[in-house]
Amino acid sequence: MEKFGAEILIETLLEEGVEVMFGYPGGVLLHIFDVLFDSPINFILTRHEQAAVHAADGYARATGKVGVCIATSGPGATNLTTGIANAYMDSVPIVAITGQVPTALIGGDAFQEADAVGITRSITKYNYLVKEPKDLHRIVKEAFYIASTGRPGPVLIDIPKDVSSGKAVLEKVDKVKLRSYNPVLKGNPKQIERAVSAIIKAEKPVIYAGGGVIISGADKELRELAEQEQIPVTLTLMGLGAFPGTHPLFMGMLGMHGTWTANRAVRDCDLLITIGARFDDRVTGKLDEFAPNAQVIHIDIDPSSISKNILAHIPIVGDVKTVLGQLLEELKRHPHTIPAYRPQWLSQIEAWEEEHPLRYEPSKKIIKPQLVVEMIYKLTKGDAIIATEVGQNQMWAAQYYKFDKPRTLISSGGLGTMGYGFPAAIGAKLGRPDKVVVDIAGDGSIQMNIQELATVAQYHIPVKVVILNNQFLGMVRQWQELFYNKRYSHTCIACQPNFKLLAEAYGVRGYIINDPEQVEPVLKEALFNDEPCLMDFRVHREENVLPIIPPGKSVYDTILAPPVKKNKKNQSGRKG
Amino acid sequence: MRHTISLLVENRFGALSRISGLFSARGYNIESLTVAPTVDPTVSRMTIVTNGDDKVVEQIVKQLNKQVDVIKVWNVSEREYIGRELILVRVSSSEKRRDEVLRVAQVFGAKVIDVGTETVALEMMGDEQEVENFINALKPLGIKELIRTGLVAMLKEQSK
Prior knowledge:
The complex is a heterodimer. Chain A is α/β, with parallel strands linked by helices. Chain A is globular, with a radius of gyration of 24 Å. The N and C termini of chain A lie far apart (63 Å). The mean pLDDT of chain A is 96. Chain B is an alpha+beta fold. Chain B contains four helices and nine strands; from the N terminus they run βαββαββαββαββ. Chain B is elongated. Chain B has helices at 15-25, 54-66, 98-107, 128-138; strands at 2-10, 32-37, 43-51, 70-75, 81-92, 111-115, 119-126, 143-148, 152-155. Chain B has two domains: 2-78, Alpha-Beta Plaits (2-Layer Sandwich), CATH 3.30.70; 81-155, Alpha-Beta Plaits, CATH 3.30.70. The interface between A and B is medium-sized, with 20 and 20 residues.
């Protein structure tokens, strides 16, 4: 029996286990939306296509499943591009569906026509223009397979109107097989042996792990390796949660806003065990001063990430979980003791930690943004999912919330997309309704997708928006302060809406908090109920994110937070 | 340094633009690119001549391998291979110079494919060095038009 293309599409999505879908309708999508109307898929109408793709991304990061979004041709498709690029940079599995003008009109500058496949070519792992309804089933199956395997990433499917409204017989594909696409999962045994002998000998090793550990679900293996071999661990922003933030071997995040401890340890280590991370410039700073004395082991599923920025002496291509499993097996086959120097190395790390812990000057008069993050941590006991926007809010969240479990930090790492956090939090909450989901935002970023207050109001999605409001585009202002003689060129955004009233206009509870004493009670009241809300914390306007390694510089150029003044209780200072 | 990269790709809509787009997006050079179906019509062979230091070429090969449509990649420059390029060239050839043009053509095994009153067109095929030498020999005579197919390359049996 023949079916409409739209029916084949939705049936295949259901077959792939799609429960939630984010999107926005349009002219060329009418057939698809007509079928969607009766389908069991929980469809969330966002108020902007960019929010739909970010929500799909947040859903994918929080659950490990493929996120799905849909937008119409032309402007719908172009509005998706930022979110697709964002997912591509952070290796997030999403399937983005776009409508396209009828095949007969393609290339003719039709109404709402844009070359979605052409535009997204360099920001998708793969993309398709579906030419005939009979190809839809196979293409959708392939898209899910490509998006979720190997190094995950976004796949776009562009569906012309006559393909969704046309008919074909649905011939089911059982298993996707692509001769040109076979990601390597197992590490080369010879390389594993070399890595093991390096680990056994290393006096001053460091594990530097990233998002790959979370994607492959290798947090247990990572912990076993670190504990068994007594190796200190640092994580990238994308990796936070892959290793417990409260663990004694954890040194904190590394890189531009990483801890002094982590960056010093990487500087001095003799073996850098890189796991599912890619030596981003925000991590390495000046390349030739990054781990200059270290032998480098690099485990990654993407061969093109290896030796791209830093030469790997022992490259291991494979799935992180599989390779770490192999590594632990091989270590067991070589009975060994921890090298005698190790306790000295660990106490050196402790000394660095004591020398310059993460710290800030507390205040009784004005809310410090770090305090808000610490309080969220304290009240949620580290069990919430924290989405962030981009900028200072993101770095304070990364520094002061101790992420103990994977998939609890949802943040735009590679692309650095302002406006990401709120819609991503919506996606995360739909994927993990059991968790408290907080978007830690800045007053700049939140205004980039503020319209999604309507979405949380309509569907009663209890996402908690925390604005660290300093009335500045804070991170850029901070750079202007430090590197451009305090010339605050176009970074002051004191002209802004009353966020409380704005939230209330959308039907969402709003708060304004000025008093440090009120931080705890307001959060206590707002975080744990089943309603969305928005909290506008008026924080210290010129607070900086510290430490900072100036761009292109090395750890020795770090600008550190000054010691906290005496006679005040030091309420910051965390391990790492 | 110059490198010749040979790849098998799915003969699919968009495969060529994905690959050429990869070069432009990452700032790699393409000196020449040829593409045509193989004996299996679902597979195309691409030959790309590019340049860059070892690190860049290593990245190019890895990035090509990463493409979903790419079945296999060889950096043929690292092995024994046979490279051939076809060129069509039109040179000025007044009455008194015609003999000279024909002599050069003969030396390089080129074929005359068009004779006019002002010019002669030649067809020549050879490896990279032969083609370069041929073009250099014709330059003093006045090249009016030069059309090159770009290099195609095949690994020798023993280096496969």
